[in-house]
Amino acid sequence: MYFIFSKVLLFLLFPINWIFVFLLIALFSKKVKLKRKCFVTGVVLLVIFTNPYLLHLFAKSWDIGPDPLGKGKVYSAAIVLGGFSGEDKNGNGVFNEYADRFIQGVRLKEERKVSHILISSGNGNLQQSSFKEAAWANGVLKEFNLPDSAILIEQQSRNTFENAAFSKELLEKEHLKPPYLLVTSAWHMRRALYIFKKSAMDVIPYPGGHIAGNSKFSATDYVMPDAGALAGWGFYLKELVGLVVAHLK
Q1: Could you tell me the CA-to-CA distances from 24 to 1, 47, 178, 215 in Å, in that order?
Q2: In which residue ranges of the chain is pLDDT below 70?
Q3: Per-residue confidence (pLDDT) for residue 161, from 0 to 100
Q4: Which residues does 236 contact at the CB level (< 8 Å), separation at least 6?
């Protein structure tokens, strides 16, 4: 039930849906005052959420950077959270725009900063299929000639709560000692770190790619609307609400 509720709530969190609703009311309402208020509200929200500089400011305060790693220390595992791939129309796995998570995990292993990579991800879609992200990633890791002994696969989790619970169980079963490196996108790290630590896991943040907050700005970026900023706010609002829910849960 919680899993289904979270997916419905996610739909309601995206600002584009709010804007769409207000503009629809403005278009079809027969009440002049309501029409005017909804139109103004929709336009104001559109201006705010398409401004890349406002998203940049929020991202800078929200994103968590990597903690310094011990010099010459080899950690037992990098826990790589899923969401870096999906399935195409033929049911085959393909990387998406969050492949930085997977790349960071492989990089840590190649640089010998970790002895194991744990891929934690099942299928987080509301409409389930046979595709399991971690199982597919396992095949890719083998193509990179990583030995089976260095790969751990957790393919049952559907969300970050389950990532933490199932990863903990697997790492304890394999007798791998903490601390572990937690690998996910920068915008997701704050919530993921909170959930893992609340699950009594000793993890060190090692974030990957950024949606915003780490790029240089030109003069036009302060005023020119950007559809990418609108999409970015959807992710951050999801993380903000998710953090509150994690705290209450």
Answers
A1: 31, 17, 52, 35
A2: 1-11, 124-129, 219, 221
A3: 94
A4: 55, 58, 59, 62, 187, 211
Q: Where are the alpha helices (DSSP H) in 144-211?
A: 160-173, 186-198
Same domain, 197 and 98: yes
Question: What pLDDT, on the 0 to 100 scale, is given for residue 92?
Answer: 86
pLDDT confidence of residue 203: 97
Backbone angles phi, psi at 81, to 5 degrees: -80, 145
Cα-based distances in Å from 37 to 20, 23, 32, 54, 109: 14, 10, 9, 24, 55
What pLDDT, on the 0 to 100 scale, is given for residue 125? 64
How many residues comprise the chain? 249
Q: Is 168 helix (H, G, I), strand (E, B) or coil?
A: helix
- Are 96 and 13 in the same domain? no
Please answer whether residues 55 and 230 qualify as being in contact, where contact means their C-beta atoms are separated by less than 8 angstroms.
Answer: no
- Domain carrying residue 111: 78-205
